Amino acid sequence: MIEIKKFSLSDEEFNKLRRLVFDVAGICLSDSKRELVISRFSRRLRALNLSTFDEYYRFVISPDGVSEIQNFINSITTNKTDFFREAHHFDFLVERFVPEIVASRRREVRVWSAGCATGEEPYSIAMVLRHHLVEPHGVQAKIFATDIDTHALDTARNGIYEERQVRPVPEELLHKYFLRGKGPAFGLYKVKDCIKESVSFRQLNFVAENYPISVFFDVIFCRNVIIYFNAETKRRVLNRLVRYLARGGYLVLGHSETIFDTVEGLTYLKNTVYRKE
Ligand SMILES: C[S@@+](CC[C@H](N)C(=O)[O-])C[C@H]1O[C@@H](n2cnc3c(N)ncnc32)[C@H](O)[C@@H]1O
């Protein structure tokens, strides 16, 4: 039997590690996240053959640990997502956004999936827009998808999902925009190139000094990301995102996320969808 080594985490180590997570990614870890910190970083201790969390902390902040920072971040993010998560936001695209674009006779739209995790969100957006806007009306749709987690981005770029993961995809879209695996790939579903080509993935940390983005977006999805931030980080990040929204563009947040008066120039529509005036 293989014995998996268990590590203990002192209060001091916990506080140092969560402070570093906050400084690097803006993610706030409450006291209840102790077990999560132990389980996520234990894997890194094992991989690096270290004995204590303090050793790991000291390695990450040392000059030699520069290459570990990304693993440190990837270990602590929560990438929970689904195709067509919060389906009303995709109904919103079909019922409100698409008719507005068609009426405006615009030839191109841009949507940003900010905090895209493993790709289910941007691919859901891409499928809906291709089906309802690109194919019937000849409008180009460009989806920009970003996340801090490079491991999640690799999965997203791959665009291969298991059967249980594609279950929420409406049958018609599944049929049209996925290839079903055969033989050894049986049970796997691959996003077709026409969808993949409309999505560009890039790493972006919301708390970075600069966002290397020089375009405006018609819709920004930033769902289930700011829940990990404190009030000040939420305010800063949302205000920056809104600067990248075109006038009349929409900001779409997750179901438990409200912005109250933290962002100026937005009007609330419904179902956590806001419009920039
Ligand atoms: C729970 S997932 C949400 C995925 C998708 N938006 C959805 O609603 O299904 C949250 C994502 O936010 C990303 N994230 C957390 N902190 C971030 C930061 N500082 N900058 C960019 N992305 C971040 C995580 O890596 C994770 O993939």
Largest sheet: 7 strands, mixed
Question: How many domains, in number, for the residues?
Answer: 2
* Radius of gyration over C-alpha positions, nearest whole angstrom: 20 Å
Helix/strand order, N-terminal first: HHHHHEHEHEHHEEHEEHEEE
**What would you call the shape?**
globular
* Proportion of residues in β-strands: 15-25%
Ligands bound, unique: S-adenosylmethionine
Major β-sheet strand ordering: 6-2-1-7-8-10-9
The average pLDDT value, as a whole number, equals 96
Percent in helix? 40-55%
Question: How would you describe this protein?
Answer:
Helix 6 (120-137) links the parallel strand 1 and strand 2 (140-147). The chain starts with 10 loop residues before the first helix and ends with a strand. The relative contact order is 0.12. Strands 6-2-1-7-8-10-9 form a seven-stranded mixed beta sheet, with helices on both faces. A three-stranded antiparallel beta sheet has the order 3-5-4. It folds into two domains: 11-76, Chemotaxis Receptor Methyltransferase Cher, domain 1 (Orthogonal Bundle); 88-276, Rossmann fold (3-Layer(aba) Sandwich), CATH 3.40.50. 43% of the residues lie in helices and 19% in strands. With 277 residues, the chain is of the alpha/beta class. The structure holds S-adenosylmethionine. S-adenosylmethionine (SAM) is lined by residues 25-27, 77-81, 85, 115, 117, 121, 147-149, 152, 204-207, 223-225, 228, 254.
List keywords for this structure.
277 residues, three-stranded antiparallel beta sheet, 11 helices, 10 strands, 2 domains, binds S-adenosylmethionine, Chemotaxis Receptor Methyltransferase Cher, domain 1, Rossmann fold, alpha/beta, seven-stranded mixed beta sheet
